[in-house]
């Protein structure tokens, strides 16, 4: 049966009225259910995509990435107003910030926990009892997950990356992109000897050719053109200065930009000429400092005056300005081994970095990329190619998920079978554990187990299979052959997930379970909603009473 597609939008836009007690609980459960159901169709390799169209109907996004969907809703006119919807959006943001993946699973699991809680509330259980039972169940689930985990190996990393990429437009190029991700993570982690930081892997996309033409570079790619067209387009063995200070005297953008408390009074042409000469002298001094220290290339996060650009071009120095973010500047400095300069007065030769080569390339879309290569760099850049805009955007989102998943597996050191295998195995153990409890928490632990199985149920449903039959078969298979068996949505069969290479990091599963529990716990313990206007009127009422006394 088709559901009303407008319902989730109504919830995201809808503003709950002041409520308490049973009305509050009913509102929480209804919104959580609709929100979870709305996101559930984007889970797994057989997931459906959402097309999000902006208000002007020209800009749109086609994606199955949970974090992207919720982020766009939050930025567009569909601003979430209902407190439960807001909490779900914040949950997805927190999951993406902490682990970079698993946002959809977290939201879906939180919704299932609240669905099961609603059944218990209707049976007469107090929300606090349910929350306490869920807390006990979470503690046991984390223990069981650790028992099911296996150590991470180099081969496992490749499979983790492929699993993360499985839900995006990468079926043809999945293996090639996964190898690229693993090579990148091993590079930034010094071949696994150090902790991998996903931020050290930079992604740049450029339309044209196909995804199979994507390339990994040791170094950094700057999405900017050179400051002056007469600057050299290629340079080898270059000393690189990375600066975070403006090389200009423009008001609000130059060296006095942070403190523009100065005035220049010009009375005649000679005064204007003297002022221009003074500006030129200041700029010349900046240029000379950079030239004399031996910089072959100057890269700044802020503006560089066009006059300095001309002098650089005459001396054969490359200049690049306005690097988009501070994170990009940090990655760039790490790629060339330079110290970021914030004061030109203190610059020294040892502050400069080194690049094996710097090369500017122009693409058919008239955009220029500058490739800064360094074979010893601890940061890498992956240049993604693709045809349609929405395809390459989805590949980029998939690559981000794969990079985070692979780094989590390497840093955490443990992996688990995916495809719902872990959830079914933990649910079975939780049901046995629940029988050891002699109070009402037993029901909550069993409900937690049922909620966990919401993940494999969703994977099966999205594959077009009978969730009841497949889940029963999966439980029986695990009892007979072991807990590593799960549902492979690609071939719609039950198989050994470890042998099939469908695996996920333990740290990701732990984060999903914790995030979903914390959200469900917060909402279960919420008794009423007090909006700002109501609270403000109460304060005014109390003040009025005091004045009347």
From TrEMBL:
GO terms for molecular function: ATP binding; ATP hydrolysis activity; ATP-dependent protein folding chaperone; unfolded protein binding. Keywords: ATP-binding, Chaperone, Nucleotide-binding. SUPFAM superfamilies: GroEL apical domain-like, GroEL equatorial domain-like, GroEL-intermediate domain like. The keyword Chaperone applies. Belongs to the TCP-1 chaperonin family. PANTHER family: CHAPERONIN (PTHR11353). This is Thermosome subunit alpha. It comes from Candidatus Syntropharchaeum butanivorans.
């Amino acid at each position: 049966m088709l559901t009303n597609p407008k319902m989730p939008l109504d919830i995201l836009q809808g503003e709950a009225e002041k409520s308490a007690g049973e009305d509050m609980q009913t509102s929480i459960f209804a919104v959580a259910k609709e929100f979870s159901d709305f996101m559930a169709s984007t889970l797994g390799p057989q997931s459906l995509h959402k097309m999000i169209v902006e208000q002007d109907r020209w800009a749109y996004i086609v994606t199955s990435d949970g974090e992207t969907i919720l982020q766009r809703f939050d930025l567009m006119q569909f601003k979430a107003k209902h407190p439960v919807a807001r909490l779900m959006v914040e949950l997805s943001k927190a999951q993406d910030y902490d682990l970079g993946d698993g946002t959809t699973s977290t939201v879906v699991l939180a919704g299932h926990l609240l669905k099961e809680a609603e059944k218990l509330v209707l049976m007469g259980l107090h929300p606090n009892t349910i929350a306490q039972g869920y807390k006990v169940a979470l503690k046991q689930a984390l223990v069981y997950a650790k028992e099911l985990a296996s150590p991470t190996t180099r081969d496992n990393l490749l499979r983790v990356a492929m699993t993360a990429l499985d839900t995006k437009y990468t079926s043809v190029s999945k293996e090639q992109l996964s190898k690229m991700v693993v090579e990148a993570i091993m590079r930034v982690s010094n071949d696994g000897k150090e902790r991998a930081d996903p931020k050290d892997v930079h992604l740049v996309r450029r339309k044209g050719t196909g995804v199979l033409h994507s390339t990994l570079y040791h170094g950094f790619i700057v999405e900017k053109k050179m400051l002056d067209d007469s600057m050299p387009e290629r340079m080898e063995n270059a000393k690189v200065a990375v600066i975070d200070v403006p090389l200009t005297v423009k008001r609000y953008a130059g060296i006095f930009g942070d403190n523009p408390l100065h005035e220049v009074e010009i009375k005649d042409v000679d005064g204007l000429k003297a002022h221009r000469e003074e500006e030129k002298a200041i700029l010349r001094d900046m240029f000379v400092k950079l030239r004399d220290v031996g910089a072959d290339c100057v890269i700044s996060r802020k503006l560089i005056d066009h006059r300095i650009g001309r002098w650089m071009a005459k001396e054969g120095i490359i200049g690049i300005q306005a690097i988009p973010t501070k994170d990009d500047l940090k990655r760039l400095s790490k790629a060339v081994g330079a110290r970021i300069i914030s004061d030109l007065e203190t610059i020294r030769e040892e502050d400069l970095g080194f690049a094996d080569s710097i090369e500017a390339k122009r693409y058919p879309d008239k955009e220029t990329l500058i490739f800064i290569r360094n074979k010893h760099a601890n940061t890498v850049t992956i240049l993604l190619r693709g045809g349609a805009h929405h395809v390459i955007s989805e590949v980029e989102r998939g690559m981000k998920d794969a990079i985070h998943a692979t780094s989590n597996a390497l840093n955490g050191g443990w992996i688990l079978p995916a495809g719902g295998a872990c959830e079914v195995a933990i649910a079975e153990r939780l049901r046995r554990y629940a029988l050891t409890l002699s109070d009402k928490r037993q029901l909550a632990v069993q409900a937690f187990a049922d909620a966990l199985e919401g993940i494999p149920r969703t994977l099966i449903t999205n594959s077009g299979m009978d969730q009841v039959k497949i889940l029963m078969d999966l439980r029986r298979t695990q009892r007979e052959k072991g807990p590593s068996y799960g549902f492979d949505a690609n071939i719609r069969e039950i198989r050994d997930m470890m042998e099939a290479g469908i695996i996920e990091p333990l740290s990701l599963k732990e984060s999903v379970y914790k995030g979903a529990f914390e959200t469900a716990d917060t909402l279960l313990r919420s008794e009423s909603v007090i909006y700002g206007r109501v609270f403000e009127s109460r304060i005014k009422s109390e003040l009025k009473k005091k004045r009347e006394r």
